[in-house]
Amino acid sequence: AILIIDHENIIDCNLKAEELFGYSRDEIIGIEGIKLSPSNQPSGTPTIEKRKRKIDEAYEGKKGTFYWQYQKKNGDTFDSEVSLTVIEIEGNKFIHASIRDITERKNIERSLRNSEQRYKALLESIPDLIFIINRDGTYEYFKADYKQKLAVPQEQVIGKGIKDFFEPEMAAKMQAFVNEALSTGEQQNVEYTLASPGGPRHFEARLTKLDADHVLQVVRDRGALL
Hints:
The protein has helices spanning 15-21, 25-28, 47-59, 103-125, 168-184, and strands at 2-6, 9-13, 65-71, 77-89, 92-101, 129-134, 139-143, 188-194, 201-211, 214-224. It is of the alpha+beta class and 226 residues long.
């Protein structure tokens, strides 16, 4: 949608603006631009303050797109991406506002964020050690056990490979389990011993395919070696 604005009032628009806002051309022309937005933006900033700042920046020659929430004639709000430029008509300067409706994109982003938060909460509630390992055997995620008995700084795990923690023979076996989980989609179970901050311990691991290139490894501490 395109609006031509004389500081405060809209003096022209295109057909897409009529469709987007739900007003006829006659209704839009002459209306104050501020009336096409809710009183506050989602960030909580008063629309009147943010609008003035953006228009001032446009007259100063600053370019770029920014997020804005508008309001239709029926009261519904929608998310948009806006760019403002200054144009000259018969010696007078006006604001040319190009408005792209991005409501669907923002809804998808919000849904993904909510899903990510739910899955993170789910992972954090599991008492065992959790790893995400990629196809190459590199650890991309690590969560310590809930008692923090086996907690180590993430930088000591993430980015490291299976070969950094296991002897060659066991590392080869672990990589084979990763490959098998990825190729068959079936859960792989393995038991092993490994040094820990509290000494050698016995572990039981379950490896499950996450996607085409990643495996989720849930590791249960079976206790110190006698």
